[in-house]
């Protein structure tokens, strides 16, 4: 199978689309996503989990563009969401409400009401306070909310501290030992029906042992709850499967499926997982243009029109993204270079200490692995318009979110009359 992003005719292609020509058509910087890469990743995961009856819900926070959600929904995915906005995105993209799970550590009453009205499949509740609020909202609406308890299994996923979520000191979920008290409380509430447990221990996990420990803990609590007369008929195993950005070892999907089977596969529960980055991370890139080359004493600085406001992961997580010219000019240089943006922050970089082929003003570079937590975390810092997003399918491409124009950027602000009407007495 040809990789989604591959070299052809001396340049980088996305499926059958020449990215150099695409850059000329849409301008830079821009995000480009491969439909084939997303569906192939979904199919690979479904191939090992379908025999176990595991439902796959795309974690929308990784990339909430409706076209991305719709691509995965067409392949068979439901949606894991963490806000009303993401519910609306998923519904608009064609995900059935019953296949939407509403996670998130602190939902508002308004968000709960919207989700109940929409008829979503489940709320993953993360605290006793949230359970009480959801019960009140549901009773006021004359509804019963399907509930799953998010438990915190106190398992360290061994990933970056800003994306680990399953330790006791993290803000997420309820201590797993408190699960019996939670279900006892829920049993006395007319507005909720609690029959499920969920967990999510973190993101970008490539070593599978933490999953096994977490799922074994979930199994033990399920059996203990059933012994106490509590009905548990669904287990949400969360997401977190990682991808290869640099030299990581890709998670073995067959081994992951064996872990699921051996830990919870015999409990008779409906099972679901919530991959995000795994499905879309390596299905997207950020294409930038070199705008300035500045030699330094020990390294060069390659300035591009892409910056931290477009892709904040290197700044926020010290994350590595491979960077390559679309049309290389020979072998890598002996002198390292930092690939940086024009934003007025020392933390504005896409890559540091890279050995790249010679780059000149006007050359194009691709920042790889930008399909997850890229455009979805972008901002207009320094009043920079948001970059467009483009979806490719074979030889076709479509701008699935246009570049924010300067007129649109300015129109978001409203200047009060006293600053524009010179006849107003400002001292009054």
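^ Assign residues to that structure.
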């Amino acid at each position: 199978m040809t990789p989604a992003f591959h070299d052809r005719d001396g340049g980088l292609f996305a499926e059958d689309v020449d990215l150099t020509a695409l850059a000329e058509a849409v301008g830079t910087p821009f995000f480009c996503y491969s439909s084939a890469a997303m569906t192939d990743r979904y199919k690979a995961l479904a191939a090992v989990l379908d025999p176990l009856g595991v439902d796959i819900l795309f974690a929308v926070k990784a990339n909430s563009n409706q076209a991305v959600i719709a691509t995965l929904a067409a392949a068979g995915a439901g949606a894991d969401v963490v806000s009303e906005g993401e519910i609306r995105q998923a519904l608009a993209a064609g995900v059935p409400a019953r296949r939407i799970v509403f996670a998130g550590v602190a939902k508002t009453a308004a968000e709960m009401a919207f989700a109940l009205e929409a008829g979503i499949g489940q709320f993953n509740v993360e605290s006793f306070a949230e359970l009480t609020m959801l019960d009140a909202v549901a009773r006021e609406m004359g509804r019963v909310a399907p509930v799953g308890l998010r438990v915190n299994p106190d398992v360290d996923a061994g990933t970056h501290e800003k994306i680990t979520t399953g330790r006791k000191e993290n803000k997420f979920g309820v201590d797993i030992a408190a699960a019996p008290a939670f279900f006892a409380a829920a049993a006395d509430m007319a507005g909720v029906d609690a029959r499920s447990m969920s967990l999510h221990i973190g993101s970008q996990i490539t070593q599978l042992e933490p999953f096994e420990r977490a799922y074994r803990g979930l199994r033990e609590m399920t059996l203990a709850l059933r012994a106490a007369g509590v009905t548990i008929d669904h287990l949400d195993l969360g997401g977190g499967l990682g991808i290869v950005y640099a030299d990581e070892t890709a998670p073995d999907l067959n081994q992951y499926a064996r872990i699921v089977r051996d830990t919870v596969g015999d409990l008779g529960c409906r099972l679901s997982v919530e991959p995000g980055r795994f499905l879309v991370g390596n299905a997207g890139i950020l294409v930038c243009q070199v705008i300035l080359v500045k030699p330094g004493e020990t390294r060069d600085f390659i300035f591009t029109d892409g910056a931290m406001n477009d892709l904040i992961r290197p700044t926020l997580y010290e994350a590595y993204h491979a960077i390559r010219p679309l049309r290389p000019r020979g072998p890598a240089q002996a002198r390292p270079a930092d690939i940086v943006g024009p934003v007025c922050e020392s933390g504005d970089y896409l890559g540091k200490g890279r050995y790249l082929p010679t780059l000149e003003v006007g050359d194009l570079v691709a920042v790889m692995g930008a399909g997850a937590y890229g455009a979805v975390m972008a901002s207009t810092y320094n009043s920079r318009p948001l970059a467009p997003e483009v979806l490719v399918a074979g030889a076709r491409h479509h701008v699935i979110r246009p570049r924010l124009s300067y007129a649109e950027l300015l129109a978001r602000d409203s200047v009060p009359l006293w600053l524009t009407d010179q006849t107003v007495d400002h001292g009054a």
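The longest strand covers residues 284-295.
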